[in-house]
Design brief:
- The protein has about 325 residues and is an alpha/beta fold.
- It has 13 helices and eleven strands.
- The strands form three sheets. It has a five-stranded mixed sheet with strand order 3-2-1-4-8. It has a three-stranded mixed sheet with strand order 5-11-10. A three-stranded mixed sheet has the order 6-7-9, with no helix packed on it.
- Helix 5 packs parallel to helix 11 and helix 12 runs parallel beside helix 13.
- It is globular.
């Protein structure tokens, strides 16, 4: 079995030193101007507990950080690698407060395995999983589905990804691997959505599950060879903006090449945290009903402290014991 690493970028928006640098470079408006995007929910210990309990087979965890390290974290753990931005991102692109350069340059982490799973710090395992949930036959497990890009704050970035894909791949790429796009394991609804878009002569867009994403390091290296100018331009922007591309570009490329194994995403869910929804979400966490959960923050939350408290109660019910990653 191949070695599989987990990678998780994390930021502590309450760190005074980080706040000072953020204010120094902060733009007055834009996609990353709000400090809410960087607030810490206090869930990171449970992320490590979940990995230890539900994915003990992981080879190494790479925690990417601006420089701050949680006081509770045992940095001497043999499976833990603390990676600061300056350890792998070229210095001309630092400091950065943009998730896209942080993710697009991951292949530069010196000790990173060829096979790794990229988490965001709002993505959690909530029941046991096996390596084959992420990789089979050396290929990432994924769901290939055509999609129409919805208007949203991130929509322009997705369009940038899709433009580069269409410049490189024709729709014949899908035809060559049609069986991987039209497999029953995706479920009828997903199949129908792809089928309705098959008459298009180009890729209109791709479905994004917003879940922990398996990647090969070599796919990032290939992307930099193919799109060096676009990736360097994104890496040079300190805050996310509409000219950026995202790490999903690498995923789209592997889908078009057929370099993946089809997998259902029915055991994964993305949920938006809100005053009205947090109790249901906490119950879902506590019961371990899904393999993976993505808990999306919201600017509409009225009582952050109460929502965070309820959320942590759900994690505490599922994962009450400290992990070996904690002091």
């Amino acid at each position: 079995m191949q070695q599989i690493d987990f990678v998780i970028p994390w930021v502590d928006g309450s760190d005074p030193a980080w706040q000072a640098e953020f204010r120094q470079y902060r733009i007055e408006s834009g996609m990353d101007a709000s400090a809410i995007r960087y607030r810490d929910w206090g869930t990171l210990p449970y992320w490590f507990r979940a990995v230890e309990q539900f994915a003990p087979w992981v080879h190494k965890i790479h925690l990417i950080t601006w420089g701050h390290i949680p006081a509770w974290l045992d940095t001497s753990h043999p499976k833990l690698n603390i990676v600061r931005h300056e350890d792998y991102i070229p210095k001309e692109w630092l400091p950065t407060f943009n998730a896209n350069p942080i993710e697009l340059n991951i292949h530069r982490i010196e000790s990173l395995s060829e096979h790794f799973v990229l988490f965001n710090d709002d993505m959690f395992l909530t029941r046991p999983c096996v390596p084959e949930d992420f990789f089979r036959e050396g290929l990432p497990c994924d769901m290939a589905r055509l999609n129409i890009i919805r208007p949203s704050s991130i929509g322009p970035l997705i369009l940038n990804n899709v433009e580069l894909i269409n410049n490189l791949h024709t729709r014949k790429a899908l035809d060559r691997h049609l069986g991987k796009w039209l497999t029953p394991c995706y479920g009828l609804s997903n199949l129908l959505k792809t089928i309705t878009l098959l008459p298009w002569s180009f890729f209109p867009g791709f479905y994004d599950s917003h879940q922990a994403q398996p990647y090969r390091k070599s796919d990032f290296e290939r992307a930099w060879q193919q799109w060096d100018e676009a990736l360097a331009k994104t890496s040079s922007t300190r805050f996310r903006d509409c000219s950026n591309v995202t790490e999903w570009l690498i995923r789209y490329d592997t889908l078009c090449r057929g370099e993946f194994v089809p997998r259902s995403m029915a055991d994964c869910r993305m949920l938006t945290l809100a005053d009205e929804s947090v109790e249901e979400i906490a119950h879902l966490i506590a019961t371990g009903a899904q393999r993976l959960l993505c808990l999306h923050d919201s600017t509409e939350i009225r009582d952050f402290e109460q929502v965070a408290s309820t959320l942590l109660q759900g994690f505490e019910q599922l994962l009450p014991q400290k992990s070996s990653y904690e002091k």
